[in-house]
Amino acid sequence: MTTTLSPALLTDPGLHATGDPHGLWAWMREHTPVHWQPAGDVPAFWSLTRYEDIRAVYRDAATFSSAHGVLLRRAELGDDPGGGLTLALTDAPRHKQLRGLMADWFNTRAVRGLEGHIRAATRTVLGRALDQGACDFAHDIAGRLSLSVICHILGVPARDHEALYQWTNEAFEAHTSLVAHPRLLEYFEELLFQRMEQPTDDLVSALVNGTVDGQLLTEEEVVLNCENLIGATENGRLALIGGMHAFLEHPQQWQRLSDDRGLLPGAIEEILRWTSSATHSMRVAARPCEIRGERITAGDRVVLWLPSANRDEDVFADPYRFDIARSPNRHIALAAGEHFCIGSTLARAEMRVLFSELLDTVRRIELDGPVRRLHSIAVNGPERLPVRLTAT
Ligand code: HEM
């Protein structure tokens, strides 16, 4: 094994920014699909790289707990402060009740009702980019669009979107936690008090007035859940950017989509599979179990590498080919089981609207400088995607 095939490198953000993680994952799927990684910068953990194993862990929430955090963190940071409090970081039965409080805001009907807002926000950011001729697709288009949509759902007034956008960019730069960034927390605390006095038709009001086990959520729970939703949106943003990047690298697929818009739903699934922007999910074993003959002890961390699952050659034919007509395409970019991404319908709608608006209004879109990838082990994809746009 050469050093570039050392599984220990998976926790090095440099590998995901400038290296070849797919080469390493392919090697691990074949040679060490259930790999024990001793403690280093982060505590010891098991790495899973095969699709079936990862899917099975996601679907067994009774054995694999989310309440201690779902991201690897440096040992000195301790457990995630949102543990047991936010949707992503709770187990049954609390998880189901919390999810029940939020589900109505993200279901198909709710997202259909949001389409007008998504389209208007898309036209604003695209119009600005077309006027300028060149922009950073990551920052000026995808970032602003996805933040505007989640702010709308939460009930953040339009005048505050820009400030939230700045704080969000700063807060999640380190990509090690889904929660606990003081400025965002303060902001949501203030909004929470406003909605306590005067509830409106938004998700913050629903959280403020909602109950779990007959009890109102605490202020801390409301605020952390709002912030967690903002953080989770990072994946939606990365799917938009990664999708654009994939099309820039595969212009014949963009042409194909342009010739046949009926391919768009399949193209969205392929973008999700191809980009797999959530790099890993972590679980902690609540009881002893076995995976492929390896004995997992209660308390062990188990890390699921999603981009690896979505390139598993046992599941996907020709997995390294970006093919917008791929069928079947049973990717697990949005996880599986009880914690299946609650924002999945919304993320798909944002992709559908943005790519169809681009096809309608932009004649040519070209790369306009070097692409820089994120330096993170939690999420992956282009952090900067400079493009030049020409209107139709
Ligand atoms: C509009 C954008 C999005 C929002 C608001 C959102 C929100 C969320 C939330 C709140 C959860 C926790 C669900 C639960 O625990 O019951 C979640 C889970 C998850 N989401 Fe999303 N998400 C978005 C887009 C995406 C995208 C585009 C991807 C990947 C391409 C993604 C991948 C995941 C994964 C892998 C999980 C499982 C995390 C875990 O439990 O370990 N999300 N999402």
Automatic annotation (TrEMBL):
The keyword Metal-binding belongs to this UniProt entry's keyword annotation: yes
Keyword terms: Heme, Iron, Metal-binding, Monooxygenase, Oxidoreductase
UniProt-listed GO biological process terms: cholesterol catabolic process
A matching Pfam family: p450
MF terms (GO), sorted A to Z: cholest-4-en-3-one 26-monooxygenase activity; heme binding; iron ion binding; steroid hydroxylase activity
Family note: Belongs to the cytochrome P450 family.
Protein's name in the database: Cytochrome P450
Species per Swiss-Prot/TrEMBL record: Streptomyces inhibens
